[in-house]
Amino acid sequence: MLFAVLDGLGHGTAAADAADRATRVLAENRAEPLDVLMVLCHRAMAGTRGAAVSLAQFGTADSVHWLGVGNVESQVLTAGPIGLDIRATVLLTGGIVGYRLPQNLQPQTISVRPGDLLLMSTDGIVIESPSTIDLSKSTAEITADILAKHAKDTDDALVLAARHRGGPAT
User: What is the value of pTM for the model shown?
Assistant: First the structure.
């Protein structure tokens, strides 16, 4: 299962064009490794404003692979003994997909448990503390809550939430 969040630079049709080009590439090549997908997106967005891109892929029953260029945040949240814990945060690489792609793209792999939540968001979202997120809610409710409470008025905002249920990603 491949998840992607793209944030085209700027606003309007030029930003949307960059994101749309990458979306088509991802849909047509979703089985490729994440670093290959990032290079394909970079090539497809050449000549556009470019975008910040984060990719996440649930691998085996207990891992997620991810890669981020730009400022799309990605975290895995888990229920801990005293509340919500951040299991991992993607190490973002500086650059702009479509304009200046880093030479050494290194996907990361982390372990996940059933019930863990993958949370990806653009820079139009400012979550000061994930402790306000209620893991008992559906992913649709979680994303709606985050958008309502943490979206900036001055920027576009996108949130993706996916729950790992164990076994193959669901």
Answer: 0.89
